[in-house]
Structures are given as structure tokens and as C-alpha cells.
Design goal:
mainly beta; SH3 type barrels; 5-stranded antiparallel sheet; about 15% helix; globular; Small, acid-soluble spore protein H; sporulation
């Protein structure tokens, strides 16, 4: 994922499915460096990690 798409997801009122290493996450914050973000697992609000935005993947759900 690139920074622009991550920013669109963070600011959107819609919910998007995003994963990091195959695990569903929420993007909490994009960092000013434009390369990293703070994320947390969808099932755990306590554990946050700083990851490279390029390693985030938007999952496309088939309805």
C-alpha cells in the first residue's frame, strides 16, 4: 500500500479491511515520515506496532 491510499483509508468514514502479514489490523496513525504507521490488531486494542506502510495490504472482499 502507498501513503496516499493509507491516508484515504484513515480519513474515510467507511470501514476497509487492511492486513499486515496476513493479520487483520486497524491503522491508528500515519507518521510524518510518510513511510510508517501505528497499527493494532482488530481483536486487540492494547497491542500497537509501528510498521512500514508498504507492508500493509488492502483486502478486497467479495460480497
Amino acid at each position: 500500500m502507498d501513503y496516499t491510499r493509507a491516508q484515504e483509508i484513515v480519513t474515510s468514514p467507511l470501514e476497509y479491511e487492511v492486513s499486515y502479514n496476513g493479520v487483520s489490523i486497524w491503522i491508528d496513525k500515519l507518521h510524518d515520515d510518510g513511510k510508517t504507521a501505528t497499527v493494532h490488531l482488530r481483536r486487540s486494542l492494547e497491542e500497537r506496532s509501528e510498521v512500514a506502510i508498504g507492508e500493509l495490504k488492502e483486502e478486497y472482499l467479495v460480497h
